Fold this sequence. Notes:
Strand 1 (21-23), helix 2 (29-34) and strand 2 form a beta-alpha-beta unit. The chain has one domain (44-336): Single-stranded right-handed beta-helix, Pectin lyase-like (Pectate Lyase C-like), CATH 2.160.20.10. It has a 29-stranded parallel sheet that branches. The chain is mainly beta. Mean pLDDT is 93; it is low at 2-18. It is globular and about 65 Å long. It is built from two helices and 29 strands. Keywords: Cell wall biogenesis/degradation, Disulfide bond, Glycosidase, Hydrolase, Repeat, Signal.
Amino acid sequence: MGSNYALFVCISLMMSATSAVDVHNIQELAAAKKGSDKFISIKNLHVPAGVTLDLENLQPDTVLEFAGRVTFGFKEWTGPLVRIAGKKVTIKGKPGHVIDGEGARWWDGKGGAGGKVKPKFMRLKLDDSVVQDLHVKNAPVQMFTANNCKNLVITNVNLDNEDAHKNRIGRNTDGFGVGDSKNVTVQNSRVYNQDDCFCCGSGVDIKFINNICIGGNGISIGSMGSNRVVEKLTVRKCKVISSFNGIRIKARKGEKSSVSDVTFDDIEIKDIQHNGIIIHGNYPTWHPTDEPTAQCPIKNLVVNNVRGTVQKGGSNVWIWLANGAASNWKWNSNVTGGGKKLACKGIPAGLKVPCGK
């Protein structure tokens, strides 16, 4: 991001050691955002039911800290519970803090498809900013969404929905979602959830580096459609453990979109239930009985050193694309264990992919 931005981050962190405005109740928030002190501490705050913790319109150079325990009242609504927006800001968590959605009050095994109306957790709209050291726990549904962001670094964030695994009551608890954004990096973080660990639906120059994904639906691009574009996306040095899929590109059948210059490098998968690597053009289905369409070209794809294990009932690699949709791919994978042999189609001519094995 350049030396000027690095200097901004350094100055912001130095400010955190000087003065602060503590916000203990929602009524204090508006004044804190407008005040001259640019270090705001959200400390042991309870947000009333049906109210968004509105952290939009933060002044440039603000340091926003979460401390203690932040909780939310119960209501059936769409949320979000937290909304953060600004430019040149630092969002961070103090050691020992937790932002707790107490999602068990909403979980019913149906996620966003029915049952209780569940609020999304946290939405970000940030430019030239850093989010670091946050502990987010027990989201009702989608956990952490960054849309319309530019030059954003998210680092050392723990998205912990492990409690929702009990009796499989959590669903659609997506971890990191990125859309319509440019130059966003998510790194050194951990996700334990019940849907996509990371999903990019659109964006340019997106990175997902050195992260751990547990229990969800793996690392995904898409679903692609509605003229969305994903360009220059890198996933590197990540682990996907005990998840439904490992890595995935999914394109909606009959809808225009494009995926280009994508790299999956040094990815370890372990104990995957369904597909180790899956790339398909017939979403929302994922079976070879439904023909794919070619409206989403996938070009300049690199799959390098993607390795690990799939459960016996799953498949190691499955590709299901219309002829001509894929071009200029490079492939190096070693995924084993899956006993399900699925037919594949649409692999670029001359490329050796261990598909259907």
